[in-house]
């Protein structure tokens, strides 16, 4: 089974970072910012298996973008290994994300017939999905390590995308 965009469309897969440690405990024990909080050992292991499932679904990948936060970047690294793709983690992708601004940023970067993966955080991903799918701010929750594929016939905006699939991390790991 594969998910491939047709020539005129684009495919964007949104991925929430895998399991990371408790934010309060991390801050208390390290004195470092939440931005630097890493994945747990279990999160790294589950992410590798989920990335293999993504590869089975997608086959190829043209772009891999990530929030610069450590846990998102580490999630993207697991995906990059499986797809043999470089990661782009520009400061533009620091949270919080605005759906309109992010859509304008992605539009010229994801060409027709291409597939991209964007790794991020909650609540940004659920708000993004609600806006792009429903045209209003009704959030669509994304569990840790979950992924969803969006078909983009034209532009990225309110109610402009089609949900192809949404899978929890354990579902990706089973593929």
Describe it.
With 175 residues, this protein is α/β, with parallel strands linked by helices. The protein is 37% helix and 17% strand. It contains 6 helices and 5 strands. The protein is globular and about 50 Å long.
Question: What are the main properties of this structure?
Answer:
175 residues, 5-stranded mixed β-sheet, 5 strands, 6 helices, globular, single chain, alpha/beta, 37% helix
Blueprint (SSEs and pairs):
Elements: E1 10-16, H1 23-30, H2 41-58, E2 63-66, H3 70-83, H4 99-106, E3 115-120, H5 124-134, E4 147-152, E5 162-167, H6 169-174
Parallel strand pairs: 1-3, 2-3
Antiparallel strand pairs: 1-4, 4-5
Helix pairs in contact: 2-3
Please summarize what this structure is.
The chain is of the alpha/beta class and 175 residues long. Helix content is 37%, strand content 17%.
């Amino acid at each position: 089974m594969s998910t491939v965009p047709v020539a005129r469309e684009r495919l964007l897969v949104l991925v929430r970072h895998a399991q990371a440690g408790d934010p309060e405990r991390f801050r208390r024990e390290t004195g470092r910012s939440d931005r630097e909080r890493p994945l747990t050992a279990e999160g790294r292991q589950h992410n590798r298996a989920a990335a293999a499932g993504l590869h089975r679904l997608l086959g190829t990948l043209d772009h891999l973008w990530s929030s610069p936060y450590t846990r998102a970047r580490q999630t993207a690294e697991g995906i990059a290994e499986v797809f043999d793709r470089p990661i782009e983690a520009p400061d533009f992708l620091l949270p919080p994300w605005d759906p309109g601004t992010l859509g304008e940023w992605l539009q010229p970067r994801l060409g027709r017939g291409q597939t991209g993966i964007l790794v991020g955080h909650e609540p940004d991903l659920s708000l993004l999905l609600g806006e792009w799918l429903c045209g209003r701010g009704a959030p669509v929750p994304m569990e840790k390590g979950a992924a969803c594929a969006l078909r983009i016939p034209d532009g990225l905006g309110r109610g402009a995308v089609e949900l192809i699939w949404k899978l929890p991390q354990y579902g990706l790991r089973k593929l």
